[in-house]
Amino acid sequence: MKTIFLIDDSSTMLMSLKSTLEISGFKVEVANDGQAALERVQQGLKPDLIITDINMPRLDGIGFITEARKLLRFTPILTLTTESQQAKRDEAKRLGATGWLVKPVGGNDLVQVIRQVLPGA
């Protein structure tokens, strides 16, 4: 079973995504901001895929991607955000994001993208 790590400061978004992904057969870990997520990775969490929001308190998604890439060089990281500025997309990509999804994204669409970036999912 593939593990997906969800990072978002919206508890509603986390619950909704977690439910959708678990129904689709994934194991799901969650964190409510980039700092908490980074601490989980530093403690040894090695997910198969990370999905992170960009705009969060303490450590935003861009900062998380920057730090996570030092520890998880090959893990796919998708951003899922309301942010649509091209400059933010370019920065996230440059720092190691695999892809960019704009909220809201439907459950079927999300699972389809995950299956594209996560072989064997």
Q: How is this structure best described in words?
A:
This protein has 121 residues and is of the alpha/beta class. The chain has a domain at 49-76. 45% of the residues lie in helices and 19% in strands. The protein has 5 helices and 5 strands, in the order βαβαβαβαβα. The chain has helices spanning 11-23, 34-42, 61-71, 86-95, 107-117; strands at residues 3-7, 27-31, 49-52, 77-81, 99-102. It has a 5-stranded parallel sheet, sandwiched between helices. Strand 3, helix 3 (61-71) and strand 4 (77-81) form a beta-alpha-beta unit. It is globular, with a radius of gyration of 13 Å. The chain starts with a strand and ends with a helix. 31% of the residues are buried. The modification 4-aspartylphosphate is found at residue 53. It comes from Acidovorax lacteus.
Features of this protein?
single chain, alpha/beta, 5-stranded parallel β-sheet, 5 helices, globular
The gist of it:
By secondary structure, the protein is an alpha/beta fold. The protein contains five helices and five strands. A five-stranded parallel beta sheet has the order 2-1-3-4-5, with helices on both faces.
What is the topology?
Elements: E1 3-7, H1 11-23, E2 27-31, H2 34-42, E3 49-52, H3 61-71, E4 77-81, H4 86-95, E5 99-102, H5 107-117
Parallel strand pairs: 1-2, 1-3, 3-4, 4-5
Helix pairs in contact: 2-3, 3-4
Proportion of residues in β-strands:
15-25%
Order of helices and strands: EHEHEHEHEH
Task: State mean pLDDT (0 to 100 scale).
Answer: 93
Report low-confidence residues grouped into runs of 5 or more.
none
